[in-house]
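Q: Can I borrow your eye for a moment on a structure tokenisation matter? Would you mind producing a protein record, from residues through to fold? Write it directly below this note and I will take it from there.
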Amino acid sequence: MTINVELRDEQAARLDRFATGLRKSRVEATAQLIEEGLRRAEFPAIEFRDSAAGRQAYVVGSGLAVWEILMVAEGYGLDPDSTAQHLQLDRDRVSQALRYASAFESEVLQALDENRSMTAEKLRASLPPAAWIDVP
């Protein structure tokens, strides 16, 4: 479906900067912003941030990505109360994160799997040489 939208010059410039930062076209960036806005409307405790692994869903008011909440929750049988207590987060935020993880399962599981597959060698390869310190 194609939708025509009128933007003010300043909005178009901001959209172009956003698209450039993501290395996407204006159309791709617009579609992404609409998708993220729809997800935010459905899950108000979820926001989107840029990270080293790309743009990810995070829990509002925390430094935790949804996949990190899921990783901890798995240890508690996906119980939101125990997970919230462990993370010292509001239960509603944890609940929304778990519902988000269920609604967008493949995306969240991919991020979780990427974390689980990280090895020292992969980490070393991803960092600049000066950032790695060998400790005897």
